């Protein structure tokens, strides 16, 4: 899939609130600081003018952020979970918002779940995997920050995490926002998840990083 157009469509703060539109949705989930905003910026081709807010302080993303992509689907950025230092009411509010959203029949068609490639999955990661399995939501697991590991160690971690989380290797995408590794694979996986048959692929060798364009449209 090639990114032609991206528009921020708004933030949903309530799990029962109406969505901006009826387009299919793919939700992006992961614990706080896993690199979700960075991944979304790279995925959507934003290297200079950022779409999603990247910060060194965990817990920045609060609501459900909707990005309309190619007028074909919504990429939904979920607030990060398992921020250990967050007070209980904050964590409870998160659970209500995110789990309420994921369970909606008109909610996401699939979930891209980000896990840090350097660490064992957290209890929240395991809970999320379990939730997705029980909800019958198709998922892709992205292992983030791969550039922080040596090639050897990275390979071992990918195999190890695939085994401990009992994943199908086809479900797992090693990724780095720093190098762009995994971008094309993930875009194709997302296209498959939304059932987009009319996906046009990037030309071989084109890193595709500059594909995203911000276009303001009128009357649509
Ligand atoms: P919250 O919104 O706070 O939950 O965090 P997030 O998951 O959106 O993470 P974010 O993208 O803001 O990144 C957190 C930190 O990790 C930042 O300092 C990023 O620069 C860094 N980071 C993210 N992705 C990568 C990566 O692929 N490689 C490296 N080396 N650093 C990364
Ligand atoms: Mg974020």
Outline:
By secondary structure, this protein is of the alpha/beta class.
Describe the protein:
- There is one protein chain.
- The protein has 220 residues and is α/β, with parallel strands linked by helices.
- The protein has one domain: Rossmann fold (3-Layer(aba) Sandwich).
- The protein contains five helices and seven strands; from the N terminus they run ββαββαβαβαβα.
- It has a seven-stranded mixed beta sheet with strand order 1-3-4-2-5-6-7, with helices on both faces.
- Residues 198-220 have low confidence and may be disordered.
- Residues 30, 32-38, 54-56, 58-61, 80, 144-145, 147-148, 176-178 line the site of guanosine-5'-triphosphate.
- Residues 36-37, 52, 60-61 line the site of magnesium ion.
Global morphology:
globular
Unreliable stretches, pLDDT < 50, 5 or more residues?
198-220
Secondary-structure element order, N to C: EEHEEHEHEHEH
CATH topology: Rossmann fold
The structure class reads alpha/beta
User: How many domains, as an integer?
Assistant: 1
Notable features of this structure?
seven-stranded mixed beta sheet; binds magnesium ion; 7 strands; 5 helices; binds guanosine-5'-triphosphate; alpha/beta
Write the layout of secondary structure elements.
Elements: E1 6-12, E2 25-30, H1 36-43, E3 64-69, E4 73-77, H2 88-102, E5 110-116, H3 123-135, E6 139-144, H4 151-164, E7 172-174, H5 183-193
Magnesium ion (MG) binds near residues 37 and 61.
């Amino acid at each position: 899939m090639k990114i032609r157009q991206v528009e921020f469509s708004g933030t949903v703060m309530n799990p029962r609130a109406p969505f901006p539109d009826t387009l299919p949705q793919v939700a992006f989930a992961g614990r706080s600081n896993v690199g979700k905003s960075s991944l979304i910026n790279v995925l959507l081709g934003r290297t200079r003018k950022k779409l999603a807010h990247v910060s060194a302080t965990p817990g920045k993303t609060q609501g459900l952020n909707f990005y309309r992509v190619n007028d074909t689907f919504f990429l939904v950025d979920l607030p990060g979970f398992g921020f250990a230092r967050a007070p209980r009411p904050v964590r409870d509010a998160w659970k209500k918002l995110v789990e309420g959203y994921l369970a909606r029949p008109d909610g996401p068609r699939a979930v891209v779940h980000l896990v840090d490639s350097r660490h064992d999955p957290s209890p929240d990661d395991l809970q999320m995997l379990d939730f997705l399995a029980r909800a019958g939501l198709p998922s892709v697991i992205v292992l983030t920050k791969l550039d922080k590991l040596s090639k050897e160690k990275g390979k071992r971690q990918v195999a190890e995490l695939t085994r401990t989380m009992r994943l199908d290797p086809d479900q797992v995408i090693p990724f780095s926002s720093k190098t762009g590794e995994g971008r094309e694979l993930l875009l194709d996986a997302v296209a498959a998840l939304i059932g987009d048959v009319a996906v046009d692929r990037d030309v071989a060798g084109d890193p595709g990083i500059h594909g995203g364009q911000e276009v303001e449209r009128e009357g649509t």
